[in-house]
Design a protein that fits this description.
Two copies of one chain form a homodimer. Chain A has about 575 residues and is α/β, with parallel strands linked by helices. The first copy, chain A, is built from 16 helices and 31 strands. In chain A, strands 1, 2, 3, 4, 5, 14, 15, 16 and 17 form a nine-stranded mixed beta sheet that branches. In chain A, strands 18, 19, 22, 23, 24, 25, 26, 27 and 31 form a nine-stranded mixed beta sheet that branches. In chain A, helix 3 crosses helix 4. The N and C termini of chain A lie far apart (about 70 Å).
Chain lengths: ~575, ~575
């Protein structure tokens, strides 16, 4: 901002010059006091310059007594998890009042390296018109690339590289430090990353399920500010007391609003934030984003003032965003018009003083940006039906048992028999394969899965937290090989082979996201999931999204990576052959 | 902090290594939740690494069930107003629990220029031992040097110089922007300063008495964050609603705790801070510092949690001081042991894990630092008794009437007569002279003062807000000349001439502060004030400190500068001669 712009704002505030925009007949919700004030809101150069009456302006907008809130901020989200491009994400969320997100491109960077983060930054930046973006993005540098040493990801950011990248203005802070085990153990490379954040005075987000007591103290000494991964109410209370900002997670799979709501008090409400973490496109379309979370929190008994602060002022305070999070003079003119503080139905959204959405429709156009770095990312060594043979040399086998509506698996020991050098399936037994897809190394992990219910073919997906290799489940080796081939040629996606039927929904951006519209993504993912359901996948499992977590070796108890079957509890590889 | 230190903290938190210090049997007050928790506090490398039990340490300290609070922070203070050097200020305040101050060396810089600020920075820095200072100082760059164009100060920082200085790490932010008139008017030089702060993302403190409505909006657009100068409860409420942090002023002359207390609510308590602004050494010695303010606030009905936050967490949030303001892992080990949350009697104080005060005694030694730049600052052109002749050429004269216990003056029109080219005094009429003392220019302003009560000589002082010229009041020209000479040879101070009696208390540091101990300053200022009182100065006026504000041309209604009599309401110079 130039000096002359400061003067222009002051001139507008003093009514010596006309403003750019005046919202009239507003009921302004004050996050500092909890009161609602009637008046007009004057805007100049993207900043609120006054609250009062009698302003002149180039544009007037009568908001007809609607409540004006500060723009909503999501304290932690992986945009990739929507399977939408940044542009589509903005098109979908901005009409719901979202005006800022703290985005952690953890998945993209695990596939594409730093180029993945730069793609997100650039895609969002291209939404700008005259310096104003409908959606402001604070990009966190993923702290765990790869997430674990037990799998092959597309990139590796060691301590030194992380420290170097973090110096760039591209990155606001360090993304969720999932390797809490490494922090607590004092792992040198992990500390190098945290030390860099400390030196650069950049915020560090946390991810510390079950970390309490001494371990929590140690984690906090390392400089972590936030957390969204508690396993119990007691754990959340402890984290609040120890000074963490707790991000209440209102995601598609994980949602702890009901656990958090009773914990939010007059004393501590300033220490809670809202976040989505992982949210799917259909959810965003059908239910909304932070508007939905606000409505849910209030329904759970949280005082509206506290809920609104959790999506506005508290986020600004946690991340040190001066001039954000309130409707007040000198603050960014990021505003949302709603009917009430109960349903939070969003009628209009302003970002930097620009009307960017109205009655659910975005008022900005997007041109798709798809750089080379995020395209054509699926590289697999040739596979055949024989690649999926499992010549199990024991009478009992260790299998993964998937629990309905859970990301964790259980280990089960089953009697098995083989024929012609391959395990005989049936009785609700499937094969699971994780095929390395970044370097065409041919690494393939094979395991048995019990309880999924699929029969008559195979399904597969290239989204597989956190390294995003290909995960294929089936009862037919040839179909599994075909699924890999379909995914390879599509550049990633979701694929299904059932007899003669072949379906594929491409996730052509890094194998994680679709370049299609949000409507198409929602419709086609629903379609292919329904088709997979007809192959017998049981209720309680999302056919594809459940698969996406079977390769994540940090969630108990038994998982599969491209390097083999992993016993999360013992924190080491194991075998399908069960000795006893 | 080196990476290895991060590991050491983690090792201590995990009880793998002994800590530096463990406070046992603590009742830890939690500013996040308002609860009090019993346990031990473990410290390593100046940082709290854990709260719990079972820590091993090099040093244990049983705090015997005392309440442990975070170190107190003063959000706004002019150290010079104590008349103590920074070292003495620390010696006096640290035992009262003060662990951080946001200091604005406005007076020093108006006398000595930037060298005055550098002196404060260096004097405080020299208190450090092994990197830990008993008192942490965030230095604000004075924004108004000179405070007005109607007087001669020792230095001038224009917009460009201010912008340049503000880039230095010496300065945390921009000091109180008193020139709110300039801000609101869009004065170019003032905006240049504010623009620099905005560009550098440095906080700007405010000073805006009576600024409400459009003017307040404009002032906030300029980027001002705080204020401590409201004239009414309604004004404070408006400033809170518009997003300012309001600093409750608990100073020696100005104290609005009683006005603020009823305004502090469950909703807005996070937006109030404590500050001293101007506090005198005797007050600090007899009553205390923020401990006294806390006790007073609680007595006024403010909930202890809110009061404590106002001196700890809220200050940290306002100024963006991550890792300050709470007793929690990862936070600076700045702690205060008190008996209760009612009287806040301080027993022990730790700063960065070092015990720096105990039972009222500082546990650090100070070596006085007095650079050339702040010594020998009083330069006056020769004066004689004739310099104070007032040959008033009208029958009625305009005089300043000082109100008891107020900084404002009233204008009175009196009949006067002259004899031998000088006004005839008597009937409770005195002469007031403001003698320029920075450049020996000979500039002298003369005026009449009614109601002070002094007779039989003259008194004078080199503290005179904000330009700190010599202010001399008397009824005897020769005595006034002698007072100037006494102040000149002492390098500034307070002086008194009454018949044969001559007394002077030197303020040898910039003419503002004494290099003596706080005990001596308190004793000698009390002595000379008592001696002046015996010359007839009425109750309700502090003989010297009231003088110090008679030259401040921003407080209504009639003031005197070295350039003449100033009508604050009309904002222009006027004459002693009254036409009507």
């Amino acid at each position: 901002m130039k000096e002359s712009e400061l003067r222009q704002m002051i001139d507008c505030a003093m009514k010596r010059e006309p403003c750019d925009l005046v919202l009239t007949n507003a009921r302004i919700f004050n996050v500092f006091t909890g009161e609602t004030e009637e008046g007009d809101i004057a805007v100049k150069d993207g900043v609120i310059v006054g609250i009062g009456t009698g302003y002149s302006a180039r544009t007037y907008r009568d908001v007809a007594g609607r409540i004006i809130l500060p723009g909503f901020m999501d304290a932690h989200i992986h945009v990739e998890s929507t399977m939408l491009t940044p542009e589509e994400f903005a098109r979908l969320t901005v009409p719901h009042g979202t005006s800022l997100i703290v985005a952690d491109p953890h998945e993209l960077v695990n596939v594409c390296g730093i180029a993945g983060a730069e793609y997100v930054a650039e895609a969002f930046a291209r939404l700008q018109r005259e310096g104003v973006s409908p959606l402001e993005v604070l990009l966190q540098l993923p702290s765990c690339v790869p997430a674990t040493p037990f799998e092959t990801s597309g990139a590796r950011l060691d301590g030194h590289a992380t420290a170097e990248e973090l110096e760039k203005p591209t990155f606001f802070g360090l993304g969720e430090m999932m390797n809490y085990v490494g922090v607590i153990a004092g792992d040198a490379e992990t500390l190098e990353k945290l030390e860099a954040a400390k030196r650069l005075k950049k915020v560090v987000d946390g991810h510390a399920p079950g970390v309490v007591g001494d371990a929590l103290n140690a984690y906090l000494c390392a400089g972590v500010t936030t957390d969204h991964e508690s396993l119990s109410a007691q754990e959340i209370a402890e984290k609040i007391a120890r000074g963490m900002y707790v991000q209440v997670r209102c995601g598609s799979s994980a949602n702890n609003a009901a656990v958090c709501a009773p914990l939010i008090t007059e004393e501590n409400n300033g220490r809670f934030l809202l976040c989505s973490d992982d949210k799917h496109a259909p959810d965003l379309m059908q239910k909304g984003h932070l508007d939905d979370a606000l409505s849910r929190l209030v329904a759970l008994g949280v005082r509206p003032l506290w809920a609104v602060r959790m999506a506005t002022l508290n986020v600004a305070q946690c991340y040190g965003l001066r001039g954000h999070g309130a409707v007040a003079p000198g603050y960014a003119a990021d505003m949302v018009a709603v009917d009430d503080l109960q349903h939070f139905r969003v009628h209009a959204v302003w970002k930097g003083g620009e009307l960017v959405a109205e009655e659910g429709r975005p008022l900005f156009s997007v041109a798709r940006y798809l750089p080379e770095a995020v395209r054509d990312t699926v590289h697999v060594a040739p596979v055949t039906a024989d690649s999926f043979r499992m010549d199990i040399r024991s009478e009992r086998a260790r299998a993964m048992y998937v629990l309905p509506n859970e990301l964790i698996t259980q280990e089960v020991i089953l009697p098995v028999r083989t024929k012609d050098g391959d395990v005989v399936l049936g009785d609700d037994l499937n094969k699971l394969a994780v095929v390395e897809r970044h370097f065409a190394s041919g690494n393939t992990g094979l395991a048995l899965v019990k309880g999924y219910g699929l029969h008559g073919g195979a399904i597969g997906i290239s989204v597989a937290h956190d390294s995003h290799n290909l995960v294929v489940l089936g009862d037919d080796n040839a179909a599994m090989a075909r699924v890999v081939e379909l995914l390879r040629t599509a550049g990633g996606g979701m694929a299904l082979v059932c007899g003669e039927t072949e379906e594929v929904f491409p996730l052509d951006v890094a194998g994680l996201m679709s370049s299609a519209s949000c409507e198409e993504v929602a419709q086609k993912t629903a379609h292919i999931a329904a088709r997979a359901r007809r192959m017998g996948v049981k209720e309680g499992y999302d056919p594809f999204m459940t698969l996406a977590f079977l390769a994540l070796p940090v969630i108990p108890h038994l998982k599969l990576t491209d390097r083999g079957l992993f016993d999360v509890d013992a924190f080491r590889f194991t075998t399908t052959e069960a000795e006893e």
